[in-house]
């Protein structure tokens, strides 16, 4: 959630309301590669393409709003994470960011594992051919049916989140005659510098078992005493959209200290640690995310150093990036409907979607950028707020941005970096039909999640 105070350009100084703005870009036609996926470009004639196809053609064929996902970029990001961590570590893509059968297939082909957090995410993964032993099952309140399914299907690990769950998973494993591999999720007491709703390692929240007061050590004692469970490691996830590595370092250090304490008390060295996901991406050009190789290097250095100091063999590390893989790979394409200039304030640009396809601005005060993509324009910049079509004044997609002053109804605009937590958190508010996800690669486009239809919604309403 970048935020930069910036004076507006001279043309706007007299009309800008109080607030913080990104600078009006010097060239509104430029597409900053920090926030756009890698095959996005603007032709000399002004049309924007992704995966070799003009977005105007994509809009004609698939309609708007639509999420356009750059498959080559997705695969390249998977490979960057895989290569950065090498064979000594595992990368689990966090499916909650965005999951579909096509994505599962790409992950499988690119050598990533998958983290799921519901029975239906698990079903999607298995249906698309992800081997069960490459799946981790998460969640703070897995239902008995979900636990049963995960154990029965033989998932590679279940990440235990509470004392009750230790008992539930152990009973299920006993009943099914299995020995289930598990990790224990601990809260390490780190205050991650991110929005309160997406920080997860401080103590006053619902996830995991606290290291403080010996809770985690007690959970380890219980798990080690149960035949149906094989404790393979400790898990920590400190939050999401984080740029500063300091929190990960503290977390890694505390997890290694717990491993040392377990060795001292039980004489067992656990073979794995999982440091979760949470790496931030650029939503605006002001954000400076870390590259996977930097993250891999700093995590592996800290774990190796702390383990050496504690006299432990270095465990196998795993990480769970979601946003950092899928976030930058997609943008949302909208058609402009109405344009309302509010004298002395800003211009409200209404699009054919809104908080039903991107709740992040309303929920986390998230910042995005926007660009006119159906043509080029040399008109001067105008300060806009991009809003949706829902019955709510908080229905904002992009709070403050600049678009060309000749913007007109029917123009196509696009909001980049919407690959993570937009389709997966989409809703049917006002009976909105959730948009399709269209993957684009090498001049070909394919719907991977189709647009909902009126019949889909009416079918749920059984009268
Ligand atoms: N591992 C665990 C255990 C998690 O809970 C999460 C995210 C991840 C990995 C992946 O985190 P990522 O790398 O994607 O940041 N809806 C919010 C984000 C919620 C994240 C929940 N857990 C948003 O739109 O920002």
UniProtKB/TrEMBL annotation:
The gene is lysA. Belongs to the Orn/Lys/Arg decarboxylase class-II family. LysA subfamily. Residues 1-23 are annotated as: Disordered. Its cofactor is pyridoxal 5'-phosphate. Pyridoxal 5'-phosphate binds at residues 278, 320-323, 421. Homodimer. One of its GO terms (molecular function) is diaminopimelate decarboxylase activity. Pfam families: Orn_Arg_deC_N, Orn_DAP_Arg_deC. This is Diaminopimelate decarboxylase.
